[in-house]
Amino acid sequence: MDFEYGSSKVEYYFSNLDKLIQKCGKDIAKMILQRLLEIRAYPSMRDLMSGIGKPHRLRANLSNCIAFHLDKRFRLIVELPQHNENEFFNIKKVVIKGVSDYHDGKDKWVIS
User: Fold this and answer.
1) What is the pTM of this model?
2) Is the model more confident about 107 or about 38?
3) What backbone phi and psi angles, to 5 degrees, belong to 89?
4) How many CA within 13 A on the CB side of residue 10?
5) HSE on the CB side for 53, CA within 13 Å?
6) What is the rounded distance in angstroms from the CA atom of residue 45 to the CA atom of residue 100?
7) Inter-residue contact 107 to 98 (CB < 8 Å)
8) Parallel, antiparallel, or unpaired for β 108-111 and 65-69?
9) pLDDT band, very low/low/confident/very high, at 12 (cuts 50, 70, 90)
10) What is the C-alpha to C-alpha distance for residues 104 and 83, in angstroms, rounded to an integer?
11) Which one, of 49, 80, 48, lies nearest residue 63 by Cα?
12) What class is the 2-111 domain?
């Protein structure tokens, strides 16, 4: 699957390992890179939703997004292109929005 970054800030951190480690810590940075490699390896959303990182659709203001677990608190947030439900599994390109902690009513972006 192809992806692009949602902002120059996200691309800056995700393309610079030292800055990513400074921002998120070594363990989270490692998981971010792993998830990016996994996303790139899958050809479509159908394959991607098979389980890596416990992917799940989000609600409310992030209803067009999928979250992938990085650890107990943090999620890699991926935005989907405009689509109807019949096209969901055929999506082949997404936008990496960033990393967020959105548990317990929080929506705290670490990188966005």
Assistant:
1) 0.92
2) 38
3) -75, -10
4) 21
5) 28
6) 21
7) no
8) unpaired
9) very high
10) 29
11) 80
12) alpha beta
What gap in Å lies between CA 72 and CA 61, rounded to an integer? 22
**pLDDT per residue over 18-61, tens digit each?**
999 999 999 999 999 999 999 999 888 888 888 788 999 888 88
Tokens of 54: 């416990």
- The DSSP-derived string for 29-54 is HHHHHHHHHHHHHSSSHHHHTTSTT-
Residue type for position 43? P
Report the C-alpha gap between 44 and 80 in whole angstroms. 12
What whole-number distance in Å separates Cα of residue 93 and Cα of residue 104? 30
Interatomic CA distance for residues 37 and 57, integer angstroms: 20
